[in-house]
Write a sequence for this structure.
């Protein structure tokens, strides 16, 4: 089958076939007719959300196909109400025994096309079992990883110099279908709780304190100072966070030193409701977590704090942006401001920052972001009632 590593990128022109919108095929692009498609997303809830532009591209490119998504159990809420998906299939992180057998029977050779945004061994094996045509990422050029290229119809090398969204959309280009760039946020299936604001038109700010990984947390003192500054400006702080016991306790401890009237929604709303709450805020302030991606999908003004992970790869993807590198968009309106820790440490990125992981917090990179940095960024956003360019972002630090 020759070299399956396809990295060429060329401008394509549209044409219409009986399977939907296609683009004129250069020599190294694939023309695959598919009636059943399976997408396996990277096993993290934020990564599942970042795969929704690729899913939409596949849906629009193959409008008559059945499109299913395979994700890790517990992440299905991020895809609630997604109109591009026919069925969400969930699987435990490491299925065994009857659970594994049932999964293999369910997906085994049931698909014409399988695409994964993961470079893991498990992702490649799932596609091998599930689909006739298989497209996957690879990340390791070592000889013992060559089996992945041999078993896939085509592979793309992960490009860590690209944002995860634009990197995944290379699969759409490979298939010769139009790329669709916007994230698809989950739908709210029940009304949001009353925020008990001072008035119907009162301004509020959403502060999302808890990331999925505790070492990505900021300081309690920093959150408290930001909340007091917002309160003094006449803006009600609304705290959000996950529903675990640890996360709710963390947010509650932060609230104890915040102004009276601060609203705590941690653990009380689902992701669809969270998106709607963020959509109405004056500014969203959060850390490297799925909530920050939801804020971007909602088109909210954003200040987000990054420490050990690379915001060029994992930062919020601006609503309406149609390029490869959102951090390079000019002019920068400041609608998305990313504050980066001073150390730019990448050790946690590859799972070796044992000190922070054992202590489960207090990452030095995150703590190097001062309350003054965050308050200044918030002030910049609040001074722009109507941002000039809502499709740009910039990184500070």
């Amino acid at each position: 089958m020759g070299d399956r590593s396809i990295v060429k990128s060329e401008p394509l022109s549209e044409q219409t076939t009986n399977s939907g919108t296609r683009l004129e095929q250069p020599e190294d692009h694939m023309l695959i007719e598919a009636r059943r498609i399976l997408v396996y997303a990277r096993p993290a809830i934020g990564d599942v959300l970042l795969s929704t532009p690729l899913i939409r591209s596949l849906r629009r490119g193959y409008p008559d196909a059945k499109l299913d998504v395979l994700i890790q159990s517990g992440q299905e809420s991020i895809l609630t109400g997604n109109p591009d998906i026919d069925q969400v299939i969930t699987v435990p992180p490491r299925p065994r025994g009857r659970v594994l057998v049932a999964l293999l029977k369910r997906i085994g050779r049931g698909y014409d096309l399988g695409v994964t945004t993961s470079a893991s061994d498990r992702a490649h094996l799932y596609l091998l079992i599930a689909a006739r045509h298989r497209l996957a990422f690879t990340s390791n050029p070592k000889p013992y990883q060559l089996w992945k290229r041999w078993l896939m119809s085509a592979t793309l090398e992960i490009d860590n110099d690209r944002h995860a969204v634009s990197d995944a959309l290379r699969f759409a280009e490979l298939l010769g279908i139009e790329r669709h760039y916007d994230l698809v946020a989950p739908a709210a299936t029940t009304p949001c709780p009353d925020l008990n604001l001072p008035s119907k038109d009162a301004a509020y700010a959403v502060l999302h304190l808890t990331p999925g990984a505790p070492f990505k947390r900021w300081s309690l003192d920093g959150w408290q100072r930001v909340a007091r500054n917002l309160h003094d400006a006449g803006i009600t702080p609304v705290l959000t966070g996950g529903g675990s016991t640890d996360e709710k306790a963390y947010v509650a401890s932060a609230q104890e030193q915040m102004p009276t009237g601060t609203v705590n929604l941690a653990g009380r709303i689902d992701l669809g409701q969270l998106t709607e709450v963020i959509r109405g805020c004056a500014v969203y302030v959060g850390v490297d977590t799925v909530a920050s991606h939801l804020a971007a999908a909602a088109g909210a003004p954003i200040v987000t704090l990054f420490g050990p992970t690379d915001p060029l790869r994992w930062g919020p993807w601006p609503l309406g942006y149609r390029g490869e590198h959102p951090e390079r968009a000019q002019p920068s309106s400041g609608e998305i401001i990313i504050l980066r820790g001073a150390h730019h440490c990448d050790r946690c990125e590859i799972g070796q920052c044992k000190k922070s992981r054992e202590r489960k917090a207090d990452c030095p990179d995150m703590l190097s972001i001062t309350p003054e940095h965050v308050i200044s960024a918030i002030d910049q956003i609040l001074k722009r009632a109507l941002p000039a360019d809502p499709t740009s972002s910039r990184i500070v630090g």
Q: What stands out?
A: Residues 1-27, 330-334, 386-391 have pLDDT under 50 and may be disordered. Residues 282 and 385 are 9 Å apart (CA to CA).
